[in-house]
Amino acid sequence: MDPDWLPYHPNPSVPTFVPPPGAVDAHCHVFGPAVQFPFAPERKYTPCDASKDQLFALRDFLGFERNVIVQATCHGKDNRALVDALRAAGGRARGVASVGPDVTDADLAEMDEAGVRGVRFNFVKRLVDATPKDVFLGIAERIKALGWHVVVYFEAPDLEDLIPFLKRIPTPIVVDHMGRPDVAKGVDHPDFQRFIGLMDQVETVWSKVSCPERLSLEGPPTYGDVAPFARALVDRFPDRVLWGTDWPHPNMKSHMPDDGHLVDVIPNIATDAQKQKALLVDNPMRLYWK
Ligand code: 0GY
């Protein structure tokens, strides 16, 4: 692994918040193990191993029932570790893959059978080399036929340029980590209001209200400066929000979050039982287990 790599928390605390029955961790990854599933040559980072068994143990420990596993960029477009984890999960995991234009219909059908329900388009420059938008749109047309959707990862300053492209995507769109707002600027800043405006305008756009640990300036354990952003989305779009741990937290440099603390953020962003059930159960089930 990279010399400055921070491995995931070895013994997270038991969360105080008890997730409702059937809760879904809708954003997490598996890394390797590299001896079985080597990392991609074009990767921008080399992580520690973080296996499906460790992920499933964390799921149980935190009181969750299901996972949505998102292909991490360190595995490029080689989705074997993801598919292996989905097959081992006994129906309790769904996946989001990364594919190129050369993916075959047979590949897509195999991934669909294993539990993949979406593809991720990544615009974060430190993670991937750029892909032409027409290539992404071609992929989106193909996966639409399978009933899949598109997950997009970008940073707030890039949203304005991306909006025309996003409006051409013919499937539901899930935005990672609230479009990565700069929390120092506040909820009312035009960058975050632009994201809210997009969700207002385009009713097929969803948001993960995840990753306070990446966005926070205040830091653990409560990540209180991120909560107003997540709460704003949960309150306005209760049926189009998802939550995830982001375990094993790739590329964290400031600190490694305690996953129990991340779960304890939930009641501060979804402030009653109805919103918590929508966020953790009903919404992810509608999108991934329909
Ligand atoms: C995340 C965030 C990051 C990494 C990846 O696929 C990835 O490598 O998504 C990041 O470095 O911000 O959502 O896991």
CATH domain class name: Alpha Beta
| CATH fold field value | TIM Barrel
Portion of residues within helices: 25-40%
In round numbers, the mean pLDDT is 98
Name the shape in a single word: globular
Strand elements, count: 8
Strand percentage: 5-15%
Total of DSSP H or I helical runs spanning 4+ residues: 10
Radius of gyration: 17 Å
Overview of the molecule:
The chain has 290 residues and is an alpha/beta fold. The protein contains ten helices and eight strands. The chain has an eight-stranded parallel sheet with strand order 1-2-3-4-5-6-7-8, with helices on both faces. α6 links the parallel β6 (173-175) and β7. The radius of gyration is 17 Å and the shape is globular. The termini are far apart. (1E,3Z)-4-hydroxybuta-1,3-diene-1,2,4-tricarboxylic acid is lined by residues 29, 72-74, 127, 176, 246, 250-251. (1E,3Z)-4-hydroxybuta-1,3-diene-1,2,4-tricarboxylic acid binds next to loops.
